[in-house]
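Quick one from the shared queue. A colleague (R.T.) flagged Cytochrome P450 as missing a structural entry in our internal table.

Convert sequence to structure tokens.
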Amino acid sequence: MEALSSLSLPQAVALGAVVLVAAVVSIPLIFILIQLVTAFYRMTIGEIFNPWKHIPKVKSTDPLSIIFGDFRAIKTSQPSEKHVEWMDELGPVYRYRHMFQVQRVLLADPKALLHVLSPSRAYQYPKPEYTSQFIAAVIGDGLVASEGERHARQRKIIAPAFAPGAIKDFGPLIHHHAAVLVRKFAWVFDLENKRRKGLLKGDEEIPGQTKSDQDYKLSNPDSAIIDTLFWLSRTTLDIIGEIGFSVQFNSIENGSKDPLAAAMAYLIGSILDVDMAQAIMILLSEKPGLSWIRYLPTTRNRTMRDCRAVVRDHASRIVDNFKKEIINELAADAKSGVSKDAFDEWSSTDTGRPKSVVARMIRANMATGLKPSERMSNDELMHQLTTLIIAGHETTATQNTWALWLLATNKPVQTKLRKILQEAAAKDAAEREELPEEERARWADVPIRDVASITYLDNVVKESVRMLPSVPSTVRVALKDDVVPLSRPYKRADGKGTYNSIVIPKGHELFIPINVIQLSKDLWGEDAGEFNPDRWDNLPSSVINAKMPPGHTFAFIAGPRSCIGKQLAIMETQIILSHLLLEYEFDVVPGWEFTQRQQIVRRAFVDGQRDEGIRMPLIVTPIKK
């Protein structure tokens, strides 16, 4: 004490800072030590009393499994690769270990998944707290991150904006942006031709093109390597900007120069780029007293905070403008409000353009039939905007990208689909000649007005969603004890008998293997791993009898937590593919292999080109007419 009292003020401040830093650093280390002790208990004594010990278990080969469990093997493999491998070995129901030996049971059983995701139980199985907190920190506490009563209340308000009639109204807008994408590809070809001739100006560049793309020697001089993910992400962002908020993002023209587009790109990237150390920090931040970890002044956290501020500023102005507009409309109306029944009558602007999703959502939130407790606050409304972008833009771009890759690797399917689209476009053009000039002008950017009626296109989209869903998996945790039924008896781990249900203790985690069950040979047959759109014309009885969600996949989940924008995503994919395939042919780049990774959504990078980032370069060739 005497030594301390002799310190000068600057020395005392410096010493205090050192002690504070040591305390801040030591607290997480103490919790990590506690986690390691708990993990050792789970591996030893806990296994003796494990209620799931009769379920087949993955044999870990990781020397650091006490920390990583089987998570590192999963994360360093292609999405679902390890899970499919383990399913082939252990069956559709098995258990594995997450970080710090937290056990999970994987349920690739349709009856079990329908039970967990059913209306009566969906809110008993929320996402783990650390997952919800992470999503909320990035995209806001909107529909994706919300759980329980909060989710049910938000969905009730948002659902009318995604009703079938509302979605259909957006078709012409989506066609317009798909046509812009086609023209942008033509612009890229012009730039590529100038580059090859050495005519590009000093400040001129080809957006989305890397040095590897430029250095690759193509055999066909009419072709070019185009990063399809780069352009599809910008197209779907522009689409969601217009149909979601009536805002022109112009992302396809400006790239990431627009501050909102740039902020969104960073926030989305922060979800997609979580390494092992960050995964541990996310898990620790859930622990009591450690929530401050999320707010450490790291470069990443500061940038995310600044990006969220940009998004929040835009969101606040959008919400305020729409509320003023709707209040003025109501004041001019003979009625003092709008009922739920009258909602569909209010659907178009004075110019005939459909009202945006957010306008419909705010209108529904102001309906006279709602109780004050049922309405969303301004903060909740703003959270929905960022949620709408990540759910309605990034996942759709990803699904379109993988659909193109599947078509590029299965050329007979691509050729067959293009021929069908060309026949449909020719028929549509002939029928359009009979329409009034004003009506023809309305469909100027639309080669096929009713793409949904083209069965083979629908089959291709369904098969791409089955094979490579943009979100391959998710996780749930039980809020209370439950018994989950199974579709058939499964062999016990010890080989002594079978079991046809699973007891799920409170607090235990379930892995929802979307991609795994969609590649299950038990359901889809021996060719489950093959891209075969024709299978949808004659589905196996095992799939039909499983009574899976509409569409016969779990790609959009099921029940109250199902994707509210499913029909919009499907329509976008159908329209974008129809435009691209009528104008261009797609091929893989010979010698370039992709490594897939799941960071919420499925992404890929070219082997040996990791430093060039996540992308999907394909050889694109204009169709000769």
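Residues 327 and 394 are 32 Å apart (CA to CA).
The two ends are 90 Å apart (CA to CA).
Added to the table.
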